Amino acid sequence: MRFLMVSTFYPPFSFGGDAISVQQLSRALVRRGHSVTVVHDVDAYQALHPGPARVAASEVDDGVQVIGLKSRWGALSPLLVHQLGRPVLHSRRLRDLLGAGRFDVVTFHNPSLIGGPGILTWPRDSVTVYVAHEHWLVCPTHVLWRYRRERCDRRECLRCVASYRRPPQLWRYTGAINRALRSIDLVLALSEFSRSKHREFGLEREMLVLPNFIPDALPGRDATEPPQQRPYFLFAGRLERIKGLDDVVPVWRRVLDADLLIAGQGEHGDHLKRLAAGLPSVRFLGQLTREELFRYYRHAVAVLVPSEGYEASSLVLLEALSAGTPVLARAVGPLRELVAASEAGELFSAAEELPALVDRLSRDPAHRARLSDNARKAIRERWAESVVVPRFLALVAEQAARKRIPRTPAD
After folding, report:
1. Run of H or E including 73
2. pTM for the whole thing?
3. Which of 20, 237, 294, 394 stands the most exposed, by the fewest C-beta atoms within 10 Å?
4. CATH architecture of the domain covering 232-383
């Protein structure tokens, strides 16, 4: 089949796990003989990350045809989409891509700054899928993190958006998203928690749950040489307040026999480094390559996932499990769900609980070995590419049959 992936961000013009998930799905489909094109918005990335482009705007990525939209007007393009809820400067190119007969399946992943809700209605003769990698459908900030300091439990959107120094999106008060989603054949959430949050915050459209997955082959996952000899716990992700390290870093004043290694970059990094001043056991690794990251996953005592916000899922958590590494996760949102399903980690509600959990994982090798075995088993049975991607394709085929769309066979 011919797939078109529509996403605001796509590696390397991206910031985190959402775009990596789009890339992994695209590559997995190509490996199964399907034709995949990705269109993403270079202008949106550069508006949020000023500087020269790191690669050409159009390229082939492991068999995936990648189209990077770029306008001579730069940041004006995503700003217009943000404010109007539909494409403007890239409208002609997108209408051509979404036109009749081009693709069998159009899958939308975070269309926030490439097309808004308006673009969801454009495909006419394709199976259409929306994958909710974040909570953009019900939250202007995508993450249900109110006033940049707390989890959101009720709508205070105008004041909250002002705290992010963003202009309000008036189209959100017109029902545009719920109307646009009536045109989509299949709407997917990444976790039961995310599905329930979308419903709680007013999404009318029914969602099915299909989790993220881990590719069957990943570079560095089985690395045998540890990056250091001293035991360590690992955090990997963007350094932002919502990721929950503020109360974790000071805990390491009470942890004597293991390091805390922090991989990633972000605007909150300087603050975290000040918190870690005088703590030689807390080290900042900066941005790692995927291969380097999996080497650190593989040899960690455990991977810390202390997010305080409501994520849709956690790719870092699944990556850790795929390396056979237990997780220590905050009992918030889908993290509780993932740890319970895998039986491969420990949950904590307050950072004060961490020293005892760290000590047990460090000093009880039999306990850690059980969690490690559970991690590998859970990936094989629940979150492997060979499990999730066939389910995705079956859902697509079911929609194609319902719409009586003839399938273009894989090459």
Report:
1. none
2. 0.93
3. 394
4. 3-Layer(aba) Sandwich (3.40)
Asked whether the beta carbons of 19 and 9 are under 8 A apart, the reply is yes
Cis geometry, peptide bond prior to residue 12 (ω within 30 degrees of 0):
yes
3-state secondary structure of 375: helix
d(CA 237, CA 263): 6
H-only helix segments in 156-285: 157-163, 176-181, 192-200, 269-275
- 338-347 contacts at long range (C-beta below 8 A, 24 or more positions apart): 338/191, 338/313, 338/314, 341/378, 341/382, 342/374, 342/375, 342/378, 342/382, 343/371, 343/374, 343/378, 344/371, 344/372, 344/374, 344/375, 344/378, 345/302, 345/317, 345/371, 345/375, 346/302
Pairing mode, if any, of strands 232-236 and 208-209?
Answer: unpaired
For 251, counting Cβ atoms within 10 Å of its Cβ (0-12 exposed, 13-18 middle, 19+ buried), the class is middle
Structure tokens at 227: 């990056």
pLDDT tens, 134-153?
999 999 999 999 999 999 99
pLDDT at 411: 44
Q: Which two tokens stand for residue 281?
A: 């056991």
Whether 2-215+385-403 and 232-383 share one fold: the answer is yes
For 397-411, write each residue's pLDDT tens digit.
999 998 876 655 554
Residue among 244, 252, 353, 246 nearest 305 (CA): 244
Neighbouring-strand partners of residue 67 = 39, 58
Q: Which residue has the tokens 């969801």?
A: 120
Domains of the chain by residue range = 2-215+385-403, 232-383
CATH number (2.60.120.200, 3.40.50.2000, 3.90.1150.10, 3.30.70.330) of 2-215+385-403 reads 3.40.50.2000
